[in-house]
Design goal:
- The protein is mainly α.
- The protein has nine helices and three strands.
- The chain folds into two domains: 61 residues, no CATH class; 87 residues.
- It is 55% helix and 12% strand.
- The chain has a three-stranded antiparallel sheet with strand order 1-3-2.
- The chain is elongated and about 65 Å long.
Amino acid sequence: MDIRDKADFKSKTEKHSEEYFPELFGTIEDHAGELRKWLLEYPITDHFKQTRDAPMTAYKGSMVGTEEASHPGFYETMDVIKEGGQFFNDNVVSKGDLFTEVRFTHPELGLKAREETIFLKKLGYMGSTDVVQIYGKTKRFWTKQPMTNDEIRDDLRKSGVYTV
Protein backbone atom coordinates (compact mmCIF):
# COMPACT_ATOMS: atom_id res chain seq x y z
CA MET A 1 0.00 0.00 0.00
CA ASP A 2 1.46 3.36 -1.06
CA ILE A 3 0.97 5.85 1.80
CA ARG A 4 2.44 9.35 1.67
CA ASP A 5 1.35 10.91 4.99
CA LYS A 6 -1.11 10.58 7.91
CA ALA A 7 -4.04 11.95 5.91
CA ASP A 8 -3.31 9.45 3.12
CA PHE A 9 -3.05 6.68 5.76
CA LYS A 10 -6.49 7.58 7.15
CA SER A 11 -8.09 7.76 3.71
CA LYS A 12 -6.78 4.29 2.79
CA THR A 13 -7.34 2.50 6.10
CA GLU A 14 -10.35 4.54 7.23
CA LYS A 15 -8.69 4.77 10.66
CA HIS A 16 -6.24 7.01 12.48
CA SER A 17 -2.87 5.37 13.12
CA GLU A 18 -3.54 5.68 16.87
CA GLU A 19 -6.42 3.20 16.53
CA TYR A 20 -5.15 1.15 13.57
CA PHE A 21 -1.89 -0.11 15.07
CA PRO A 22 -3.26 -1.22 18.48
CA GLU A 23 -5.97 -3.12 16.60
CA LEU A 24 -3.37 -4.65 14.24
CA PHE A 25 -1.11 -5.77 17.10
CA GLY A 26 -4.09 -7.05 19.06
CA THR A 27 -5.15 -9.13 16.08
CA ILE A 28 -1.63 -10.53 15.78
CA GLU A 29 -1.65 -11.49 19.47
CA ASP A 30 -5.16 -12.99 19.30
CA HIS A 31 -4.47 -15.00 16.14
CA ALA A 32 -0.77 -15.84 16.47
CA GLY A 33 -1.29 -19.52 15.68
CA GLU A 34 -3.21 -18.84 12.49
CA LEU A 35 -0.69 -16.20 11.41
CA ARG A 36 2.19 -18.61 12.04
CA LYS A 37 0.44 -21.33 10.03
CA TRP A 38 -0.12 -18.92 7.14
CA LEU A 39 3.53 -17.79 7.20
CA LEU A 40 4.77 -21.39 7.27
CA GLU A 41 2.60 -22.27 4.26
CA TYR A 42 3.35 -19.11 2.28
CA PRO A 43 5.41 -19.96 -0.83
CA ILE A 44 9.02 -18.74 -0.69
CA THR A 45 10.84 -18.08 -3.96
CA ASP A 46 13.99 -20.02 -4.85
CA HIS A 47 15.86 -16.70 -5.10
CA PHE A 48 15.07 -15.90 -1.47
CA LYS A 49 15.98 -19.43 -0.34
CA GLN A 50 19.37 -19.13 -2.05
CA THR A 51 20.26 -15.54 -1.15
CA ARG A 52 18.05 -14.84 1.86
CA ASP A 53 17.69 -11.41 0.32
CA ALA A 54 14.20 -9.97 -0.02
CA PRO A 55 13.28 -8.79 -3.52
CA MET A 56 14.26 -5.20 -4.29
CA THR A 57 11.31 -2.89 -4.68
CA ALA A 58 11.27 0.86 -5.20
CA TYR A 59 10.34 1.30 -1.53
CA LYS A 60 13.06 -1.04 -0.26
CA GLY A 61 15.60 0.72 -2.51
CA SER A 62 14.57 4.08 -1.14
CA MET A 63 14.77 2.83 2.44
CA VAL A 64 18.22 1.30 1.89
CA GLY A 65 19.45 4.48 0.18
CA THR A 66 18.17 6.61 3.03
CA GLU A 67 19.87 4.38 5.60
CA GLU A 68 23.17 4.39 3.71
CA ALA A 69 23.07 8.17 3.25
CA SER A 70 22.63 8.59 7.02
CA HIS A 71 26.17 7.26 7.53
CA PRO A 72 28.71 9.85 6.34
CA GLY A 73 31.61 8.04 4.72
CA PHE A 74 29.64 4.99 3.59
CA TYR A 75 29.67 5.85 -0.12
CA GLU A 76 33.30 6.98 0.05
CA THR A 77 34.23 3.62 1.58
CA MET A 78 32.34 1.79 -1.20
CA ASP A 79 34.24 3.81 -3.82
CA VAL A 80 37.63 3.01 -2.27
CA ILE A 81 36.79 -0.71 -2.19
CA LYS A 82 35.72 -0.61 -5.85
CA GLU A 83 39.04 0.98 -6.79
CA GLY A 84 40.86 -1.75 -4.86
CA GLY A 85 44.14 -1.33 -3.07
CA GLN A 86 46.81 -2.88 -0.91
CA PHE A 87 45.09 -5.92 0.67
CA PHE A 88 41.49 -5.12 -0.24
CA ASN A 89 39.13 -5.72 -3.15
CA ASP A 90 35.44 -6.54 -3.64
CA ASN A 91 35.78 -9.99 -2.02
CA VAL A 92 38.46 -9.58 0.65
CA VAL A 93 39.16 -6.60 2.91
CA SER A 94 41.93 -5.96 5.38
CA LYS A 95 40.03 -3.49 7.55
CA GLY A 96 43.19 -1.66 8.62
CA ASP A 97 44.49 -1.24 5.08
CA LEU A 98 41.11 -0.23 3.67
CA PHE A 99 40.44 2.46 6.24
CA THR A 100 44.00 3.78 6.08
CA GLU A 101 43.26 4.44 2.40
CA VAL A 102 39.82 5.92 3.20
CA ARG A 103 41.42 8.29 5.76
CA PHE A 104 44.12 9.28 3.26
CA THR A 105 41.62 9.87 0.44
CA HIS A 106 38.93 11.50 2.61
CA PRO A 107 40.59 13.03 5.71
CA GLU A 108 37.50 15.17 6.36
CA LEU A 109 35.42 12.12 7.36
CA GLY A 110 37.04 11.36 10.73
CA LEU A 111 35.59 7.83 10.87
CA LYS A 112 35.55 5.93 14.14
CA ALA A 113 36.38 2.20 14.42
CA ARG A 114 32.74 1.40 15.22
CA GLU A 115 31.59 3.11 12.01
CA GLU A 116 34.16 1.13 10.03
CA THR A 117 32.77 -2.13 11.37
CA ILE A 118 29.19 -1.04 10.62
CA PHE A 119 30.15 -0.14 7.04
CA LEU A 120 31.79 -3.52 6.43
CA LYS A 121 28.75 -5.37 7.80
CA LYS A 122 26.35 -3.27 5.71
CA LEU A 123 28.44 -4.05 2.64
CA GLY A 124 28.04 -7.78 3.31
CA TYR A 125 31.48 -8.59 4.73
CA MET A 126 32.02 -11.04 7.60
CA GLY A 127 34.90 -10.73 10.03
CA SER A 128 37.26 -13.69 10.17
CA THR A 129 38.51 -15.09 13.44
CA ASP A 130 41.74 -16.31 11.82
CA VAL A 131 44.73 -14.11 11.10
CA VAL A 132 46.65 -14.31 7.84
CA GLN A 133 50.41 -13.90 7.48
CA ILE A 134 51.26 -11.84 4.39
CA TYR A 135 54.70 -10.34 3.72
CA GLY A 136 55.64 -11.17 7.31
CA LYS A 137 52.73 -9.13 8.71
CA THR A 138 49.70 -10.44 10.55
CA LYS A 139 46.42 -9.26 9.07
CA ARG A 140 42.80 -9.90 9.88
CA PHE A 141 40.45 -9.99 6.90
CA TRP A 142 36.77 -9.46 6.27
CA THR A 143 35.28 -11.52 3.44
CA LYS A 144 32.02 -11.71 1.50
CA GLN A 145 31.85 -15.47 2.05
CA PRO A 146 33.65 -17.87 4.36
CA MET A 147 37.23 -18.30 3.06
CA THR A 148 40.30 -20.15 4.23
CA ASN A 149 43.61 -18.31 4.58
CA ASP A 150 44.78 -19.87 1.30
CA GLU A 151 41.62 -18.71 -0.48
CA ILE A 152 42.17 -15.19 0.87
CA ARG A 153 45.75 -15.19 -0.43
CA ASP A 154 44.59 -16.58 -3.81
CA ASP A 155 41.95 -13.89 -4.14
CA LEU A 156 44.51 -11.17 -3.37
CA ARG A 157 46.92 -12.73 -5.91
CA LYS A 158 44.21 -12.58 -8.60
CA SER A 159 43.72 -8.88 -7.96
CA GLY A 160 47.49 -8.35 -8.10
CA VAL A 161 48.14 -7.06 -4.58
CA TYR A 162 49.88 -10.17 -3.27
CA THR A 163 52.59 -11.73 -5.39
CA VAL A 164 54.39 -14.23 -3.14
